[in-house]
Amino acid sequence: MTAAFAATPAFxxxxxxxxKNQGAASAMVFEPSFVQAMPGDTVKFVPTDKxxxxxxxxxxxPAGVAPVIGKMNQEMxxxxxxxxLYGVACKPHTSMGMVALIQVGKGPxxxxxxxxxxxxxxxxxxxxxxxxxxxx
Length: 136
Ligand SMILES: [Cu+2]
Known about the structure:
Layout: H1 3-6, E1 14-22, E2 27-31, E3 34-37, E4 41-46, E5 55-56, E6 76-80, E7 84-89, E8 99-104, H2 112-117, H3 122-134
Bound molecules: copper (II) ion.
Residues 19, 28, 52, 90, 92-93, 98 line the site of copper (II) ion.
């Protein structure tokens, strides 16, 4: 880890992701589902609609980052200090494809290959794969 990544940038920002029953493209979605953030930013998953939760996906986190598990119908907030890819899923709707991906930093992400190798339920993989393809 370099000093550049350890320092919180002065321009750290909050990124809001909504948890929705109906999104622009499909049902049961995080919007936006692909988030690009910088180290020091905070990504907030807000319960725009009910019956959703947000939690990190095991093995889709940069090394050393602790899992975050949000509660049902409550905001889940994750401060992304470490560069890399962070996978997020809605616990009740993972099998319906309700997943999100946060890329922290400009890449290349150290855990890109690991994240691409994670096995998700079919509908979750269907939405996650295009995001992983865009991620660097
Ligand atoms: Cu959900």
